[in-house]
Amino acid sequence: xxxxxxxxxxxxxxxxxxxxxxxxxxxxxxxxxxxxxxxxxxxxxxxxxxxxxxxxxxxxxxxxxxxxxxxxxxxxxxxxxxxxxxxxxxxxxxxxxxxxxxxxxxxxxxxxxxxxxxxxxxxxxxxxxxxxxxxxxxxxxxxxxxxxxxxxxxxxxxxxxxxxxxxxxxxxxxxxxxxxxxxxxxxxxxxxxxxxxxxxxxxxxxxxxxxxxxxxxxxxxxxxxxxxxxxxxxxxxxxxxxxxxxxxxxxxxxxxxxxxxxxxxxxxxxxxxxxxxxxxxxxxxxxxxxxxxxxxxxxxxxxxxxxxxxxxxxxxxxxxxxxxxxxxxxxxxxxxxxxxxxxxxxxxxxxxxxxxxxxxxxxxxxxxxxxxxxxxxxxxxxxxxxxxxxxxxxxxxxxxxxxxxxxxx
Length: 409
Known about the structure:
Layout: H1 2-18, H2 28-41, H3 56-74, H4 77-88, H5 92-109, H6 112-129, H7 135-149, H8 157-165, H9 170-195, H10 197-200, H11 217-233, H12 240-252, H13 259-263, H14 268-285, H15 289-299, H16 307-333, H17 339-352, H18 361-372, H19 379-403
Helix pairs in contact: 1-2, 1-14, 1-16, 2-14, 3-8, 3-11, 3-12, 4-5, 4-6, 5-6, 5-7, 5-9, 6-7, 6-18, 7-9, 7-18, 8-16, 8-17, 9-19, 11-12, 14-16, 16-17, 17-19
């Protein structure tokens, strides 16, 4: 049975790296679900203990945040933000600065994948209408959304998981992560401005007029109030998942927005991915091999509880199997992670997602949405700025983690 579990575990994470099964139309969520079902059917996990391997508070928190993000979308806030960025920038460099600033700020407060999904098409169309190459701005949106999401424990799926499983205090994390996040947003702007300078020197012929969008200011006000209440609740002893569900429940009660519309915006495939990977990694953990491997690493001084080991590990897992599956695996296999290492894992795994186009789901969403609008974002074009952004931002974050005493070099 142990050999069978190891085989399924390896095949599952190979599927995470490939993103699909050749010849089949099955994605990462489908691969993880099939693997989990096979392990359950083979009784690799006792039937009465299946639920114990799934971290439901994480799934509940993600569901609540998705409803909040959906309500923000129905108010037209995402589209208005993209239109404002494109319409207010009089010069390409200013447009780039606004793209980085707005994308990073929104991603710190709302799940970054939803931000880039909503903003990419309009930003792409608006920038193209200025006769300016849209690629640097789209790459900036993706990179800024990754970096900005590292500022909080609700900015991206892996940080949500780390915060919940590791019981990391919300505002304590923000106080540590905010400085490297701000510095890294500046790095995003600088790297793209330098690498794509030839595409940013052509000034727009005229100030572009953006068609006014229908923003429901009443609904927008409700969303801002709901987000403010949620952030206040995060400072109380109330569990974060309960806080998010309370706010989500209030937002579902509306005279204007059908509840079905909000519930349809819940990213069920992402929740299935998380739940299935919990089952797969829990089955592997039960073999005892993970504990033995950790003992060996600890005896050799190779546990990734130092920046010099954690940084390359996060670069590897984020740009192969993906930062979400990678973090699930690390947290399930390594149960007693030091507090400082948890914070380092959240920041570094997020920054590492900028290295390659496949490094984060946000990158892939931008590429897919841009392709539908007729703009091709290539692997090579992304790497030109993505590699220096990721390396420099991770170097600064690592030095910051060391300077604050959270991790050794």
